[in-house]
Design brief:
CATH topology: Monooxygenase
Number of domains: 1
Largest sheet: none
Distance between the termini: 68 Å
Number of strands: 0
Radius of gyration: 21 Å
Number of helices: 5
Structural class: mainly alpha
Shape: elongated
Order of helices and strands: HHHHH
Strand content: under 5%
Amino acid sequence: MGLVGGILLAVSMVPQIIKLLITKSGKDISYGMQLILLTGLVCLFYYTLVDDIPAVFWPVAAEILINSCLFALKVYFDNYYVKPDPVEEIKEIELEAQAEDKESA
């Protein structure tokens, strides 16, 4: 049961990553929560290494990887990602439509 619980915990952040990739925004995710969670996971990871608990080791390693990805995506979307201007996108679509109309005429 411990391994099953660990796997469920490890994949629990996958829906959040999917949402973040779709919305391209990490504003709903707190930096504090992420840092505290990752710090706790690293401490737990160290504990599983010292006490040789493989049933917990692999799920915790997966959680660290998944939460690190979530944290990196949050940093990227909050600080480096430039959302496209919707007005410019509409102009591009209109220009493409006009070009197609000229080609078909």
